[in-house]
Amino acid sequence: MHGIESPVAVQAAVQLDEVTKRHGRGKAAVDALRGVSVELPSGSFTAVMGPSGSGKSTFLHCAAGLDRPTSGRVLLEGADLSGVREAGLTRLRRDRIGFVFQSFNLVPSLTARQNIVLPHRLARRRADKAWVAEVVERVGLTGRLDHRPGELSGGQQQRVAIARALAAKPAVVFADEPTGALDLSTGRDILALLRATVDAWRQTLVMVTHDPAAAAFADRVLFLADGRIVDAMDRPGVADIADRMTTLGA
Ligand SMILES: Nc1ncnc2c1ncn2[C@@H]1O[C@H](COP(=O)(O)OP(=O)(O)OP(=O)(O)O)[C@@H](O)[C@H]1O
């Protein structure tokens, strides 16, 4: 007789365990994160908000393995990053993490197509052509692939950056104010696109933003204040997010 097996626990894409981060030393030391514990489930879209200086960038940098916590642990797909050496971290970031920045960070001399597959070329790996074609279609860049960034609008450049982030099928995409340099309506299009990658492909997405309307695209909004997660809201509306930010003094 076999007992009924318990369901396999869904592994978090990213998990932070009592993470602290101290910048600087001595009198100049700043505790940017103070005991942050959170699980970011696979296939979820999380927005991180908080007043200026609350620790959002530090959170993103620690969660993405760009920066090491002073104490505590960060797990990516269940693997503890604290024991991983610098070369291993670089490989993990390249293979398992996608980044989207406010300022697009494209290489100006390369075409959109070349920018999208650049991480593969740097890793000396062949891109999955069928997947890249699907990504290009989803982000709406068909017909624009031979243009250089200077020949593309801001929204199109951000689409290239998103395609580049998705091309390696990353475990997590981290986006830092991805609509910060775009006008309102282009920004909405980009957020809808990011949302669609979560809905269609179960892409895990973590986005830092100041904008309640942007955060309202997420499944969950985490609020940071003074280096701590002080609140979380599931599927909140814009007004609720804006209210919460006001009470945090933002
Ligand atoms: N490299 C650093 N050296 C010293 N202090 C730092 C460093 N990076 C960040 N800090 C400090 O840590 C705290 C958190 O900074 P962080 O950039 O994470 O906040 P933030 O919420 O992203 O802010 P903003 O919304 O203004 O970008 C701030 O007090 C900041 O001054």
TrEMBL record:
<protein>
    <submittedName>
        <fullName>ABC transporter ATP-binding protein</fullName>
    </submittedName>
</protein>
<dbReference type="InterPro" id="IPR015854">
    <property type="entry name" value="ABC_transpr_LolD-like"/>
</dbReference>
<keyword id="KW-0547">Nucleotide-binding</keyword>
<dbReference type="GO" id="GO:0005524">
    <property type="term" value="F:ATP binding"/>
</dbReference>
<dbReference type="InterPro" id="IPR003439">
    <property type="entry name" value="ABC_transporter-like_ATP-bd"/>
</dbReference>
<dbReference type="InterPro" id="IPR017871">
    <property type="entry name" value="ABC_transporter-like_CS"/>
</dbReference>
<dbReference type="InterPro" id="IPR017911">
    <property type="entry name" value="MacB-like_ATP-bd"/>
</dbReference>
<dbReference type="InterPro" id="IPR027417">
    <property type="entry name" value="P-loop_NTPase"/>
</dbReference>
<dbReference type="Pfam" id="PF00005">
    <property type="entry name" value="ABC_tran"/>
</dbReference>
<keyword id="KW-0067">ATP-binding</keyword>
<feature type="domain" description="ABC transporter">
    <location>
        <begin position="14"/>
        <end position="245"/>
    </location>
</feature>
<dbReference type="InterPro" id="IPR003593">
    <property type="entry name" value="AAA+_ATPase"/>
</dbReference>
<keyword id="KW-0813">Transport</keyword>
